[in-house]
Sequence to fold (683 residues):
Amino acid sequence: MVSRTAGPHADWSEDRALEIVEKHAGERGPLMPVLHEMQDVFGYVDPRAVGVLAEALNLSRADVHGVVSFYKDFRTELPGSSVIRVCRGEACQSMGAEQLARHARAHLGVDFGSTTCDDAITLEQVFCLGNCALSPAVMVDGRLKGRVDEARFDDLVAEVRSQALR
Amino acid sequence: MSAVSVFVPLDSAARSVGADEVADAVVHEAARRGLQVQLVRNGSRGMFWLEPLVEVATADGRVAYGPVKAKDVGELLDAGMLDGSRHRLFLGETEEIAHLKRQTRFTFARVGVIDPLSVTDYEANGGLAGLRRALEMTPQEIVTEVTESGLRGRGGAGFPTGVKWQTVLDASADLKFIACNADEGDSGTFADRMLMEGDPFLLVEAMAIAGLAVGASEGYIYVRSEYPDAISTMSAAIDIAYLHGWVGPSVLGSDRAFELYLRVGAGAYICGEETAMLESLEGRRGMIRAKPPLPAIAGLFGRPTVVNNVLSLATVPPILAQGAAAFRGLGVGRSRGTQVFQLAGNVKHGGILETAFGLSLGELVEEVGGGTASGRPVRAVQVGGPLGAYLPTSRFDLPMDYEAFAAVGAMVGHGGVVVFDDTVDMSRQARFAMEFCAEESCGKCTPCRLGSVRGVEVIDRIVAGIDREANLELLEDLCETMVDASLCAMGGLTPFPVRSALQHFPEDFEPTKAVPL
Fold:
């Protein structure tokens, strides 16, 4: 139901957005499921969705905007072809995650929350992926990776880059 | 020759170190050799240093090999793995592996044993026995059984589960809810994830029992988005449970209805706090609510709601199946039953250990965990997540139970233990605790929202040697305010790692060091 993989996404369309709302209309408190599905379909939550959702769900624009901006998962612009998340939780810190985090930024030439200039990779930080006995952990397009040292990180990057070219 | 069952975990941690590649190799290499294998993707046994752990069903029971790499598979098959033959990766009978043998698997009995989405496996291994018994009991009888078991919340607070259920049962309302908190955001914990990936029907069964017990007709499982595998497994399990009538308009053919839904978080740590989770389920920002009213009285959509952690709920079906005494008979003092300890971080033998309360911290880290992964001496352990205290090795005699930890200003919490070797800088860990709080605070109360930001600044000044004494005093004052005046555990417990780091490792806060920026 929730794909963390960045893939081909549909272009923003109000009709499609309303279809998503319609699909969740029978649910209690449907805003979160609706936003998740929008992000799955469009790759991000378009700022134009705020007004559409507010109207359709009988909420204020402030309510909808407040939710979109509160949760780190909801993006307001399209991410790179791949999303790499580096865990910075305590368990990973104990195994050198801070060094890995520095390496990741230097290797990709971007800070956390940014996308490489070729739009290939969005780098993010995350606090815990639940792989704490195989630290340091990284998630690549929804796939968990364990015991990631700098060399393995570079391999993972090379892998997603080569897939992007295909 | 009939096909031999070969088990390769589908658990996301096992996959993170190559289980999928191993599974593919088993299928291809066996086919190349004309060997008949039946590949089963099970959950993880929780011994992560041995993952990917491959098991083979032999006439003498299941035997294990690990850690197996994809390139080892051909060699293993040639060595006679399908007959359980010896090899350098051979670990013997799985159940006889010392780490598993010392455990009492009560909640985790099926995790790693069965195919997580096989209804046949589930029922053949004791599944649904708890729900069937619950359907023959009155709601009060179910709640009494849970109360008598001595089960306490596994999410961290340790509140008696039966007492919570009684409150919801006694509340009268047109609608009641069960909300399962599967927003396992604490670093060093992964037991909820393993259970959802390894035995998801157990949680489905537990939710249905909770519904019968308190008269709730709807249940929500709130899973964090960082767990995509748990989300897909849990989601599939719910669909299958509906198909088989385990939940829905008629639970197991009875006249009781229970609708079950899965909801996904969106990257907010604070939603692991029960009232913030309820807000999120209602479609709002994850801002915590002041208590009272308790969620048991006015919870989801203002209705009486049972909010329980995954493991608290998942322990109920076996309690009902085996009786309260089976659980209560284990443990020490007021910490009854088993706890699922999670060994994480810089530890040689990381994973889960379900055992009765009472083991000492030192036994857990040194004996079970085998010391650090780096081979260096252990310097500190953090118990109970990012809001738990850091303890030095001089406290390794502490027994792992709620009261013993509380007595020294620490908490067992959910049983997560993160190990650090002697390269750790404890002033950085203290700073991180404040930084994390600043990052994840919902912002509703001032001590948490601002205190955490000021905390980072004050720690920086202490380490830089600026007005050291005055700033140490200020930090203590700040910690006191956060503990006493924060609305929830986020701000209220953040001082625990800070104070404990300062108390046990004062040398790391000396100004001789470089400024940690």
Observations:
- Chain A has a mean pLDDT of 94.
- Chain A touches chain B through 47 residues (CB under 8 Å).
